[in-house]
Specification:
Layout (H helix, E strand, L loop, with lengths): L18 H18 L1 H13 L9 H11 L1 H5 L9 H17 L3 H20 L1 H13 L11 H18 L5 E3 L2 E4 L2 E4 L7 H18 L3 H32 L9 H21 L21 H25 L21 E2 L16 E9 L2 E10 L24 E8 L13 E8 L4 E11 L2 E3 L2 H13 L6 E9 L4 H27 L1
Antiparallel strand pairs: 1-2, 2-3, 4-5, 5-6, 6-11, 7-8, 8-9, 9-10, 9-11
Helix pairs in contact: 1-2, 1-6, 2-6, 3-7, 5-6, 5-12, 5-13, 6-7, 6-12, 8-10, 9-10, 10-11
Length: about 525
C-alpha cells in the first residue's frame, strides 16, 4: 500500500512553537490590549448590557477566540517575523483612540481600540500571522456597538414600505414623516420598529456563516449581501403585516405585546430560510488541514525588543489621554447671554410654545422670544461646559422630540439652506425639523445647529472635533446647542421666511451673545 507523504506548510525546525502556545500568544495579545484600555473596553460592555440592540456582542470575543483556536495548527507552522513598520500603524490607531476620547466620540475610540488589537498582532507576530488571522481580527470589530446612526434612515424606509404596501392593498393612508393615519387608527414607526437589532445581528451571523461554509469570495459576498437584505425585507413585511392585521381586526390584534412576539418569529423564520437555502451551495471542506510542521522559534532578542516597543506604544496613549482630560478648572455653571434685539425684532415676554427640546446633561438652558410685526420666533439655547460622555453638546440623545413622546411628533427632518452670512452665528446649512402636537393642534418649524469653538455648525462630528481640539490646547470646552422655531400653519414658505429674516436681522447679535456665553 502506497502512503502519500504529508506535505508541511514550512520547513521543519529544531525548536518549535506548539499549537497551544500559538493560541495562547494571540489570546494574550488581545487580552493585554483590551485590558490596558479597560475603561474603553468597559464602556463597550456597558452598552452591550443595557441595550437590546447590542447584546449579541457578548458572543463576539468567545467566537474570535474559537476562530483563533481553529487556526492554531497553521499559526504554529507559520514563522514569527516581527513587523517593525507596524509600530507606525499602532501610533495612528492610538492617536485616533485618544482623539475619540478627547472629543467624546465613543464610537471612534471603540473602533480605534479594536484596530489597535490587529495592529499589535501585526507588529509582534508579523504579516504571515495576520494572513492566517485576518478574519478573526476583522470579526472582532463586531464587538463595537455601532449602527444607531442609521436608525432614522431605517425608520423612514420602513414607513415608506408600510405606507406603499397599505395603499396597494386598498387601505387609505395619510402620512406625516414616520407617523400615519388609516381609517382604523394612528400608527408610528418608532426606533424599536427600525429593525436595527435584526440587521446588525444578521450581518454578524451571516459573516461567520459565510466564512465557515464557503471558500469562494463570490459566494461569501453573495451570502453577506443576503444577510443585509433579508432582515431589511423581513422588518418591512413585519411592520406592514402588523398594521394590516390590526386594521382588519379593528385593533384587537397586533396592538400590544403580540406584535413583538410576531416580529421575533418572522425574523427567526426568515433567518432559518436564508441559512437553509445558503447551505445548498456550501463549500465547508477544509483545504488547510494539511499536517503542520513546526516553525522555528524567533530569536529572543528581537522578540523582547518588539514586545517592549509595542507595549510602550500601547501604554503611552492612556497616560497621555488621562493628562489631557483633566478638568481645565472652568466652573460647571454657565450664564447664557441674551441676544440684543436688532433689525426691527423686539423681545416678547409671552411664550411661543410649550415645546422644549429633549436634551441631557446641559449646564444651562434658556428660551428667548422675539417679535417683528406678526412674525414670532423663539431661540432655545442650551450650554454645555466640562463635557463628558454623558453630557455633551453633540450627543445623539439630544433630539427635538423623542420617538416615544406622546405629546409631540417630528413629522419631517431635512437640511435647510439659511442664506446666512459667515458671521451671523447661524450655521449654513442647518438641520430642519417639523414638529406636531396633535392634541394641541400646534405645529412648529425648527432650525437646529451648534456653536462650538467660535463656529456655527450643524454637524455633531464637528462638535466632537472641536471638543478634542479644545482639550489638546487646554482651553475651555463650552459649546451651545441651538434652535430657532416659529409657528407653522398652512403657509410653510411664510414660516421659512420668518426664520430666514430672523437669522439675517439678528445674526450679529446672536453671534455676540454666543461668544459671550462660551468665553
Amino acid at each position: 500500500m502506497h502512503i502519500e507523504p504529508r506535505i508541511p506548510l514550512v520547513p521543519a525546525a529544531s525548536r518549535v512553537l506548539q499549537p497551544l502556545g500559538a493560541f495562547v500568544a494571540v489570546a494574550a495579545c488581545i487580552t493585554a490590549v483590551l485590558g490596558i484600555f479597560w475603561p474603553t473596553t468597559e464602556s463597550m460592555v456597558e452598552i452591550w448590557r443595557r441595550s437590546e440592540t447590542f447584546q449579541h456582542c457578548f458572543a463576539v470575543i468567545p467566537i474570535v477566540l474559537w476562530l483563533v483556536w481553529d487556526q492554531r495548527d497553521r499559526l504554529a507552522a507559520t514563522p514569527i517575523r516581527p513587523y517593525w513598520p507596524g509600530l507606525a500603524t499602532m501610533l495612528v490607531f492610538g492617536l485616533a483612540w485618544m482623539l475619540g476620547l478627547l472629543g467624546t466620540a465613543q464610537v471612534i475610540s471603540h473602533f480605534a481600540l479594536i484596530a489597535l488589537v490587529g495592529a499589535t498582532v501585526l507588529t509582534v507576530f508579523g504579516v504571515a500571522w495576520v494572513r492566517v488571522l485576518w478574519f478573526p481580527l476583522l470579526f472582532l470589530f463586531f464587538a463595537v456597538p455601532f449602527g444607531e446612526a442609521i436608525v432614522p434612515w431605517l425608520m423612514d424606509r420602513t414607513a415608506d414600505f408600510t405606507v406603499s404596501a397599505l395603499r396597494l392593498t386598498g387601505v387609505p393612508v395619510y402620512r406625516e414623516g414616520t407617523h400615519f393615519v388609516i381609517p382604523s387608527g394612528q400608527w408610528s414607526v418608532i426606533e424599536a420598529c427600525s429593525g436595527i437589532k435584526f440587521l446588525i445581528a444578521s450581518i454578524m451571523a451571516g459573516s461567520l456563516y459565510a466564512w465557515l461554509m464557503y471558500r469562494s469570495r463570490r459566494r461569501r459576498a453573495l451570502f453577506l449581501l443576503a444577510s443585509i437584505l433579508v432582515p431589511l425585507l423581513a422588518n418591512w413585511l413585519r411592520a406592514y403585516t402588523i398594521v394590516l392585521v390590526g386594521h382588519l381586526s379593528n385593533n384587537r390584534l397586533m396592538t400590544h405585546e403580540d406584535h413583538v412576539v410576531f416580529g421575533w418569529i418572522l425574523f427567526g423564520v426568515a433567518m432559518l430560510l436564508m441559512y437553509w437555502i445558503g447551505a445548498r451551495w456550501r463549500e465547508d471542506h477544509r483545504d488547510d488541514r494539511t499536517a503542520w510542521s513546526p516553525a522555528a522559534r524567533p530569536a529572543v532578542g528581537p522578540m523582547v525588543a518588539v514586545i517592549t516597543a509595542a507595549s510602550v506604544s500601547v501604554i503611552a496613549w492612556p497616560v497621555l489621554a488621562n493628562a489631557l482630560t483633566r478638568s481645565t478648572g472652568s466652573p460647571s455653571s454657565v450664564a447664557i447671554a441674551a441676544p440684543q434685539p436688532a433689525g426691527g425684532w423686539v423681545a416678547d415676554a409671552g411664550p411661543l410654545s410649550v415645546w422644549n427640546a429633549e436634551l441631557e446633561g446641559e449646564s444651562a438652558r434658556r428660551t428667548f422670544v422675539f417679535r417683528k410685526g406678526t412674525q414670532r420666533v423663539a431661540l432655545l439655547a442650551a450650554a454645555y461646559r466640562n463635557q463628558s460622555q454623558d453630557a455633551q453638546v453633540g450627543s445623539s440623545v439630544n433630539q427635538l422630540v423623542r420617538s416615544t413622546d406622546v405629546e409631540w411628533k417630528q413629522t419631517a427632518r431635512a437640511v435647510a439652506i439659511t442664506g446666512s452670512a459667515e458671521d451671523s452665528g447661524v450655521a449654513e446649512p442647518v438641520q430642519l425639523g417639523e414638529l406636531l402636537a396633535p392634541r394641541r393642534g400646534e405645529r412648529l418649524l425648527v432650525w437646529q445647529w451648534y456653536w462650538t469653538g467660535g463656529l456655527a455648525t450643524a454637524s455633531p462630528a464637528r462638535t466632537k472635533l472641536e471638543l478634542a481640539r479644545a482639550r489638546l490646547l487646554r482651553r475651555p470646552d463650552t459649546a451651545l446647542w441651538l434652535a430657532i422655531y416659529t409657528p407653522l400653519d398652512d403657509d410653510r414658505p411664510a414660516a421659512q421666511r420668518a426664520l430666514q429674516e430672523f437669522a439675517r436681522d439678528m445674526g450679529p447679535a446672536l453671534q455676540q451673545a454666543f461668544v459671550e456665553t462660551t468665553r
